[in-house]
Design a protein that fits this description.
Elements lengths: L5 E3 L30 H16 L5 E2 L20 H12 L6 E8 L2 E8 L15 E2 L4 H15 L8 H4 L12 H5 L12 H9 L26 E2 L3 H15 L3 H13 L20 E2 L7 E2 L10 H4 L2 E2 L1 H12 L6 H7 L3 E2 L9 E4 L4 E5 L2 E10 L2 E7 L5 E7 L9 H19 L10
Antiparallel strand pairs: 1-4, 2-6, 3-4, 3-15, 5-9, 7-8, 10-11, 11-12, 12-13, 13-14, 14-15
Helix pairs in contact: 2-12, 3-7, 3-8
Length: 438
């Protein structure tokens, strides 16, 4: 759940944080009343949120194992693959497609940026690498990074249980381990499916939830299965991960993100807000439901109800820098790194390119051109893929300004996954001629 064109070949190959372009200061959006919306449309937006959590999860045995090139106004320039550019534009032009899309491929300090459509309907401003956006469930990789770095430091153990770190949680959950939370084999019930949670969100989409009490919605529910015996994607897992990190350190999760993730990687435009506002400039996200006109839902929902599971706001530039670090194992020793890349059968939500397998808050995407590691996410108005190579030298982000998953638009999701795979091929072998494409 809570799951988006020009090129820059001038940046020097240096540390991950130096691969970014110059930052654009974030300016808070002025206070504004919630725009009036037809009640049915508001319910449709909330239904989309529910669909994001319900679509795609599978229970089964766990096994180890108008496009514009050029600068676009953000300093990127150079030659790009025109076939990929046209295909991204075709995705935007598809009936029911997103109003805007941006894909950023970075390797060796150089970036190719592909864009289609607009960052805001009614304008001709293209999506930019410095535009803020909701990264949805890609935020789960951030909580994974915090947990694994704490494991590296000995502050947390991957076999630590909820009973040890969070004894206030239901006794039936106490044997669940941090490892099982990170690879979605915990069996925890998903709080975003709880009728009370959905009703409260429907009544007030901008409601301020107590993020640290979200698991209370399902505290009376049994585990879905014996921990470790099956895979099922659950938004509850990463809420519990963040709470375990707080319990182990005595520090708030937001501070842990800043110290362990943002600062080491130079992420200057990434935050975990509680409210509904987005820093400017931002990609406007839309509910697309033909024949209705797209509805701007960028600020329709608050972030407190998704928190560590999907509440982070970032930019394509920052997200790529993060994924180069995370996929590359930055800050992890060999033992923890091996655990991070131990996989079970399971896909991200929505499914990413190629064959998906679930590691510790990271997914393996095995494509015909090679394997990358990352995470996807979707949220009303946004769909995300962020992936990187095992050596941490290459990254890919693909961001759409509408929600696409197996429930909302399965046909478009299939097209998107094919395009994502072709972007992976471009990332891994940029000199490969047209044979990289289907």
């Amino acid at each position: 759940m809570l799951g988006l064109a020009g090129a820059d070949r001038t940046a020097p190959a240096t540390d991950a944080h130096r691969l970014q372009e110059a930052p654009v200061p974030a300016r808070p959006v002025p206070d504004a009343p919630l725009p009036r919306r037809r009640p049915l449309r508001r319910r449709a937006v909330v239904a989309a949120l529910a669909a994001a959590s319900l679509a795609g999860p599978m229970t089964g045995p766990a096994h180890a194992g108008g496009a514009t090139g050029g600068s676009g106004g953000d300093g990127t320039h150079g030659t790009i693959d025109r076939t990929l550019e046209r295909r991204l534009q075709a995705l935007v032009d598809t009936p029911g497609g997103p109003p805007g899309a941006i894909a950023v491929l970075t390797a060796g300090g150089s970036s190719e940026v592909y864009r289609a459509g607009t960052s805001q309907l009614g304008t001709d401003r293209p999506p930019r690498t410095t535009d803020h956006m909701r990264i949805a469930s890609t935020a789960k990789a951030f909580s994974g990074s915090v947990a694994l770095q704490l494991a590296e430091r000995g502050a947390l153990g991957l076999d630590d249980t909820l009973g040890r770190r969070l004894p206030r949680l239901p006794a039936a959950w106490h044997r669940v381990t941090l490892r099982q939370l990170l690879n979605h084999t915990s069996g925890l019930p998903d709080y975003t499916e709880d009728p009370t949670f959905i009703a409260e969100l429907t009544a007030d989409p901008r409601r301020h939830f107590d993020s640290r009490r979200l698991l209370d919605y399902v505290a009376g529910d049994p585990l879905r299965f014996r921990p470790g015996s099956a895979y099922r994607y659950s938004n509850s897992d990463n809420i519990a991960v963040a709470l375990m990190a707080e319990a182990a350190t005595g520090q708030r999760y937001e501070k842990l993100l800043a110290e362990l993730v943002y600062r080491p990687l130079g992420l200057r435009d990434t935050t975990l807000p509680q409210g509904y506002r987005l820093p400017e400039p931002y990609l406007h996200g839309y509910a697309v439901d033909p024949p209705n006109a797209p509805e701007d839902v960028s600020t329709a929902l608050g972030a407190s109800g998704v928190w560590a599971s999907g509440g982070i706001v970032s930019t394509p530039r920052d997200l790529g820098a993060f994924m180069r670090g995370y996929a590359g194992g930055l800050g992890l020793g060999p033992a923890v790194r091996r655990q991070q890349l131990s996989f079970v059968t399971g896909s991200s939500e929505p499914a990413g390119p190629g064959r998906n397998s679930a590691g510790l808050a990271v997914f393996s995407y095995a494509t015909r051109c090679g394997t990358v590691y990352g995470h996807t996410g979707n949220f009303p108005g946004y769909t995300q893929l962020a992936a990187g190579t095992k050596d941490g030298k290459r990254s890919l982000t693909v961001s759409l300004t509408s929600q696409v998953n197996s429930a909302t638009n399965p046909r478009l999701l299939a097209t998107l996954r094919e395009l994502q795979e072709d972007f992976v091929c471009r990332l891994l072998d940029p000199e490969r001629p047209g044979g990289a494409y289907r």
